[in-house]
């Protein structure tokens, strides 16, 4: 089982980034997918999720700015991040979960700074 996140980097406030997460080793379409983020010294925060029917949910802190999507044919999940703010700086993780199983990818660092 592998979840591989990519797409992080340095971006100016107000800018955009698209994170990608590729999955392998499990039946992707059966899993709900999510993006979490973590700042050193703080708990990991769930910010966006998409179920296996395509329904989405967002944390208030990113609602209206971030969009989660999935491509079951490619076993990919994406996070489009717009209007980025310095407080969005964090390590971002992708997650796949179903009843009885949960997988995490390694993090990708997003830094929002001028």
Description:
The chain is mainly β and 114 residues long. 0% of the residues lie in helices and 54% in strands. The chain contains no helices and eleven strands. The chain has strands at 2-6, 9-11, 17-24, 32-38, 45-50, 56-58, 66-71, 76-81, 90-98, 101-104, 108-112. The radius of gyration is 13 Å and the shape is globular.
Please supply descriptive tags for the structure shown above.
single chain, 114 residues, mainly beta, seven-stranded mixed β-sheet, globular
Write the layout of secondary structure elements.
Layout: E1 2-6, E2 9-11, E3 17-24, E4 32-38, E5 45-50, E6 56-58, E7 66-71, E8 76-81, E9 90-98, E10 101-104, E11 108-112
Parallel strand pairs: 2-11
Antiparallel strand pairs: 1-3, 3-8, 4-5, 4-9, 5-6, 7-8, 9-10, 9-11
